[in-house]
Amino acid sequence: MPRVLLIEDDPSVREGVALGLRRRGHELRAVESGEAGLAALGEFRPDLVLLDLMLPAMNGVQVCRRIRGTSQLPIIMLTARGDDFDVVVGLEAGADDYIVKPARTEVIEARIRAVLRRLADPAGRGGTEIHGELAVDRAGLTVVKAGRPVPLAPSELKLLLHLSASPEQVFSRQQLLEYVWEHSYHGDARLVDACVRRLRQKIEDATGSPRYIQTVRGFGYRFGPLG
């Protein structure tokens, strides 16, 4: 079972989530601060981080950015405020998904498995595709731009592989949400938009005039034209 690092300062939430996931077989380390969470990364070596957004001292966004500075480890944000600006900031910082508290253990477990599936097999297997300066290796699950590796988080990689597999095809936000995040309900398009913005920052020369990921206003996104 995946090893989970839980960073949560509320004792009741921390104990409840830890108990529920341990009962499902996860090896879990639970800490109460961002500093303790960062310290535990090297020692515990988790497969995924559950990260509270509203932590004291070093908040969840700061912790997420610190992790993303050195690792593409999957991160799921925990927030008590599902509809405010902080959620978008957390996603922009590099979180792969978020869960609004309180959440049942089966919901958390389902999100964990969905995120890890993106890492295990983002978009099937295939060869290397060349799109201008961008080389997408579907077999090796790597992306190189102008000869330099581009580190991508699981959601970013799966989104890019899905879009680039069908150049010029337009995908709605809901279609991308269902494919990448496995949210079958009418979900939160902010997940898609935030992931696209992060991806553009990594693969585009100018995010204001993207070459690879085009916005189709009022609908969604497509890959290309490449020019």
UniProtKB/TrEMBL annotation:
Pfam families (alphabetical): Response_reg (PF00072), Trans_reg_C (PF00486)
Modified residues (4-aspartylphosphate): 52
Start-end of DNA-binding region: 125-225
Residue ranges occupied by any OmpR/PhoB-type domain in the UniProt entry: 125-225
Positions of the Response regulatory domain: 3-116
Keywords tagged on the record: DNA-binding, Phosphoprotein, Transcription, Transcription regulation, Two-component regulatory system
Superkingdom: Bacteria
InterPro entries reported for this sequence: CheY-like_superfamily, OmpR/PhoB-type_DNA-bd, Sig_transdc_resp-reg_C-effctor, Sig_transdc_resp-reg_receiver, WalR-like, WH-like_DNA-bd_sf
Name of the protein in its database record: Response regulator transcription factor
Organism per entry: Streptomyces pulveraceus
